[in-house]
Amino acid sequence: MAHTLGWGLIGASNIAREWMIGAMRAQPGNAVVAVMSSIAERAAGYAAAHGIPAACDHIDALLADPAVDAVYISTTNELHARQAIAAARAGKHVLCEKPLALNLADAHAIVDACHAAGVVLGTNHHLRNAATHIAMRDLVRAGAIGRPLFARVFHAVHLPPHLQRWRIDKPEAGAGVILDITVHDADTLRFLLDAEPVSAVALTPPSTMAHGAIEDAVMAALQFDNGVLAQLHDAFTVPHAGTGIELHGTAGSIVGRDVMTQRPIGEVRLRNAEGERVIEVVPHNLYERSLACFNDAVLGRGQPAATGDDGLRSLATALAVMEAARSGQRSAVQLA
Description:
Elements: E1 5-10, H1 14-25, E2 30-36, H2 40-50, E3 54-56, H3 59-63, E4 70-73, H4 80-89, E5 93-96, H5 104-117, E6 121-123, H6 131-141, E7 148-156, H7 161-169, H8 177-193, E8 197-203, E9 217-224, E10 229-235, E11 244-249, E12 252-257, E13 267-272, E14 275-278, H9 286-298, H10 308-327, E15 331-332
Parallel strand pairs: 1-2, 1-4, 2-3, 4-5, 5-6, 7-10
Antiparallel strand pairs: 7-11, 8-9, 8-15, 9-10, 11-12, 12-13, 13-14
Helix pairs in contact: 1-9, 4-5, 5-10, 6-8, 8-10
């Protein structure tokens, strides 16, 4: 085994159960050694179900465990900053779910704390790890569509009942489609275009799934610093739309279908003056690639797939979309 990395799970979550525990165990020398939930019984049951040696109901106990070298944070969004900063100060590497925080001040505090402690900070923006998205980025960088002009993201899905809960009724936890899905779109477009959003406009319809003023759908447009205009359609309420990305340039277009997903599926096509062709893509597990990049960063061989700065910048874009939807005005993407 190349090295040993003991993972502590902060949050006994669905995403850890469905994706992250397996991805961690797929890395040479990695082990899931502890789990924390604020409910002791849930922590103990989760640990027993997944073969995790230790369980606790307080972050201090998990961070005091010498077997824990790194933490994966998948609690509700309002807890990320406090937990990530505590982990950094305890000398633990941090992989945090998106959004990195609920506001820019907290996101900066996380980045600063990890930098000061000399630990690796990653944001678990899984989509940039997809083989389809890597292929699309390579095509853009190779000039396959000339100068990029426009982009469209289709990320309207149906949020299943077991994931609805706080996402549709707890604004204090960062509920709503913008911090859950639009932040992914922002990160994916930043990755594909090697460019940064500078402003946003947005509209939200009356909610049909979420409660109160929480948005469960949004249509937005972003302007990037390279001139690209991007259209986004995100929703919790659309069961059969399918997902995708289109990138259109002066010499061609890239069309990705069924690519905004946790699963290693989807198809990429390139259209240009020579016609249309399918781009060969070898699929892989998105989360395993995320963990492999994180392990390399711990070993000093690169960066996480999405860094803390990526998490901050993608959050800033989502917050601009949120402000634009609420104000009805164009909103600048601000990093401070």
